[in-house]
Amino acid sequence: MPDEWEYPWFATWDLAFHCVAYAHVDPFFAKWQLLLMCREWAMHPNGQLPAYEWNFSDVNPPVHPWAAWQVYCIDGSRDRVFLERVVLKMLLNFPWWVNRKDADGSHVFEGGFLGLDNIGLFDRSDPLPDGQRLEQADATAWMGLFCLKMLRMSMELAREDPAWDEVATKFLVHFLSIAQAMNDIGRGHASLWDPEDDFFHDILTTEDGQVHRMPVRSMVGLLPLSAVAIVPNWVVDELPDLTEFFDGWTRRRPELQDALLHTNHEGFALRTLSMVDRRQWRAVVARMLDEGEFLSPGGLRSLSAAHRDGVQVRVGGSDLSLAYVPGESDSRMFGGNSNWRGPVWLPVNALLTDALRTYGRGAGVGRPVEYPTGSGEELPIDEVAARIEQRLVGLFRPGADGRRPSTPVHHPSGPLWDAHPTFSEYFDGDSGVGLGASHQTGWTALVAHFVCAPDGIANR
Hints:
Blueprint: H1 12-22, H2 27-36, H3 64-74, H4 80-101, E1 133-135, H5 137-158, H6 163-181, E2 193-194, E3 199-200, E4 203-205, E5 211-213, H7 219-222, E6 228-231, H8 235-238, H9 240-252, E7 260-265, E8 268-274, H10 278-288, E9 295-296, E10 299-300, E11 311-315, E12 318-322, H11 346-360, E13 369-370, E14 378-379, H12 381-394, H13 415-418, E15 426-427, E16 434-435, H14 441-444, H15 446-452
């Protein structure tokens, strides 16, 4: 719940993340809240979920399926009625995204600001002139994640009802199309992947097919890592339609095989679906775990610290720029009350550590990575996820003086105050000091999830 001055208030993706933490205390209430947002008095007849209190018609990232799967697993993976109700509602929401946010049917999405506010060189919610279109790495990643969670939930339901097998196949097909499109967009066959920078970027395309890359290393380019899933071994025996499709697809559509990573480990054949191929994955993770870029003492930054001196781009006769700002925003974009140009935000950290664990137990098993980058020390990938989460939890642990790193600067000290942590919206990318609303327990409550599920419940 945010500060009292704006109570009652909600944003759909804030609520979804909050439910994951809440499920450790009261799973029934967490499930009810997720279903509430899908009921007919909240969901539009066209399938759109409301975004946030002052603009229902805007869009928040589609994290409802991710949260629902987490809550289902936290509650013991037993409430199939809940799972079925969520999937049925998301079958209405998914076409809304496809029809409204994929302008030319390319499987690359243009979702707008998508909760990341001022992360871009310009306001990504504003209409672009002269038929220009911003193809977004994060919007496309969100849809890849959406597909994979729907695939995983459908596979789970298909174990008892074979009708869901075909739903699983539908989302597998759509995911594969999105994964391919990341590297092959439109007439010019542009790619969101920049082989020179070894990173994913948004690209601005003009009506005549010209492409302008937005050379910013931000959370936008990390989020494709989140679209990853392991295909359980029981699928081969229990889901014949899906298994047959897998076998036929690998023969007929070799150009899509980059999204399916095979690994043999201790006699088990592991299949991992990933929007990011192995080489791209290692390159992006190396930047993510670099303390000179994304890895801060308190978690993963929203913008690379390598941009401390700023980035300048000339687009359509205009000079655009932004720079790494670890604390409060120095931009008036979105009213100046939000900053994704450096600080640490818990929700996207949760998605990325969850993705690391998934990859580490699938395609990355037995393939350690350097942590931190440049240290010479290699760790298993799931251990890296745990180390990042410990940095996040560390924001809330009292120091030698009794004060927590996350305590806002303006917050009083003393026995009464120091015993009670605040839950800030986001945290300084260098010091970890809490910023924004100081009682935003919504997604910052995810720190409880890190404490209660240190090995990632949904990945067991």
